[in-house]
Design a protein that fits this description.
- This protein is an alpha/beta fold.
- It has a single domain, classed as TIM Barrel, CATH 3.20.20.
- Helix content is about 40%, strand content about 15%.
- It is built from 12 helices and 8 strands.
- It has helices spanning about 5-15, 40-50, 60-65, 75-80, 95-105, 120-125, 135-145, 160-170, 185-195, 210-220, 235-245, 250-265, and strands at about 20-25, 55-60, 85-90, 115-120, 145-150, 175-180, 200, 225.
- It is globular and about 55 Å long.
Length: about 280
């Protein structure tokens, strides 16, 4: 563990740093059947963010992803109630292609809410390359929007080969590989290194010792995004794991805020991206 610098010491002493805000680009919200999520309301999540110095969370509500008749209404409602704390991904479920088209067609009505799209292919059991996802991909590609993918090693729905196909077909869509093709760390790092529009993301990565070092050493810290799957995982747990990794403070700053600020700049007011004393 790297314990020699004041960056590390200050984070562990105070739980947060004013000169290192945190941007969490992989969040969810709301209860989910069969899961105990004690801090899943917007109010509880805002309080948790404050304790860890998280400036902004970009999320997609569980109901949007799992209950198609609810659609994206919870995302819109939450961001408009708490615009200083949240932005959202427009959730896409290709099992309901008519709803996908409605969500894509109404995207521009919610420019104050959305930064891009979220796809959960392993759960929806439809590959990210399926034509039913095309309306979202095409809009993301045309406008440089973010696309947060659930990716997993060996998956026939969102594994590395399918990410490669999407990165090739939609070179202007900014693809965040949620979970970094979990377990296939070298493949994920290789994709992020090869494609300018592909990034690794750290949810469920930091529980595997050495994985973040592979991503940083092979792809560069400029291609790694911080995310926690909040409210599933704890911000301080993930920040602490990143502090303990064998990477530099400059790498940590890239991962915790600099990369996210760059990606979010076209979609988020500059005052939400400010970093005092950075």
């Amino acid at each position: 563990m790297n314990t020699t610098d004041s960056f590390h010491e200050r984070f562990f002493r105070d739980g947060r740093l004013d000169d290192c805000p945190v941007f969490d680009l992989h969040g969810h919200m709301g209860p989910l059947q069969g899961a105990h999520l004690p801090r899943c309301t917007p109010e509880a999540m805002v309080a948790a963010m404050a304790r860890a110095g998280v400036r902004l969370t970009v999320f997609c509500h569980h109901d949007t992803l799992m209950t198609p008749d609810v659609a994206n209404h919870p995302n819109v409602e939450t961001v408009r109630r708490y615009p200083d704390h949240f932005r959202a991904y427009c959730g896409i479920n290709p099992n309901y292609p008519e709803q996908v088209r409605l969500d894509v067609d109404s995207f521009d009505q919610h420019r104050d809410v959305y930064v891009g799209f979220k796809m959960l292919a392993d759960y929806h059991q439809i590959p990210i390359t399926d034509p039913r996802n095309a309306p979202a991909w095409e809009k993301a590609n045309a406008e440089g929007l973010l696309v947060l993918l659930h990716t997993w090693g060996g998956s026939r729905f969102d594994g590395p080969a399918l990410v490669r196909e999407c990165a090739t077909d939609y070179p202007n869509a900014q693809i965040l590989m949620g979970h970094s093709c979990h377990g296939q760390w070298q493949e994920a790092a290789g994709l992020a290194q090869e494609f300018p529009n592909v990034y690794c993301e750290l949810t469920a990565v930091l529980d595997d010792r050495g994985a973040v070092e592979i991503l940083v050493n092979e792809a560069g810290s400029e291609k790694v995004i911080f995310g926690t799957d909040t409210p599933w995982f704890n911000h301080h747990n993930y920040i602490g794991a990143l502090l303990g990794a064998e990477i530099t403070d400059d790498d940590r700053r890239n991962i915790l805020y600099a990369n996210a600020r760059r990606l979010l700049a076209p979609f988020v007011p500059p005052e939400l991206l400010e970093c005092r004393n950075c």
